[in-house]
Design brief:
single chain; 0% helix; four-stranded antiparallel β-sheet; Jelly Rolls; mainly beta; 12 strands; eight-stranded antiparallel β-sheet
Length: 161
């Protein structure tokens, strides 16, 4: 059985959507809906507000060639840094004493209208905190000129584990 554990809905435009005060669980689902405020928005994923070089990722944009990024301060999860709505679904396995692994599916609106297909991004990433730590926060960071607009949302779905 799963249920919403924590959520954060923005009441004004901000650069971060932080879901905090999470109970360390082995399996986590996190969903972010990032609405642009008319300017470009990006997507960087962090856990526990940790900005050290403890992340690595591999991603493919719209089925293209894989790209790898080791020793990063975040997991890159946005397809493009454009002014379009973005939707992220993140599955995380976070076993104490192990690297925290995630699978991330990203969808972006692309140009408005049914004549334009949305963009997609498949990412796998890992978080290797030192010392080891349970995940108690999920952080979506905008690194572009815009901000996540009012009503952008982050949801942590708790699994009974």
């Amino acid at each position: 059985m799963a249920w919403v554990s924590k959520f954060k809905k923005l009441t004004s435009a901000e650069d971060n959507i932080n879901i905090t005060d999470l109970t360390g669980r082995k399996f986590n689902e996190v969903i972010f809906h990032a609405i642009d405020n008319g300017n470009a928005i990006g997507g960087q994923l962090r856990f526990n507000a940790n900005s050290n070089t403890v992340y690595a990722d591999r991603q493919s944009i719209n089925g293209g060639v894989d790209g790898t990024e080791p020793n990063r301060t975040f997991i890159g999860i946005a397809n493009t840094n454009t002014a379009v709505t973005k939707f992220f679904i993140i599955s995380v396995v976070a076993i104490s004493g192990e690297e925290k692994l995630c699978i991330i599916h990203t969808m972006e609106q692309n140009t408005a209208g049914a004549g334009n297909a949305p963009n997609r991004n498949e990412t796998v990433g890992k978080f290797v905190p030192s010392p080891d730590a349970d995940i108690t926060q999920s952080n979506l960071i905008d690194d572009q000129a815009g901000q996540f607009d009012t009503n952008s949302l982050g949801v942590h779905i708790n699994t009974n584990n």
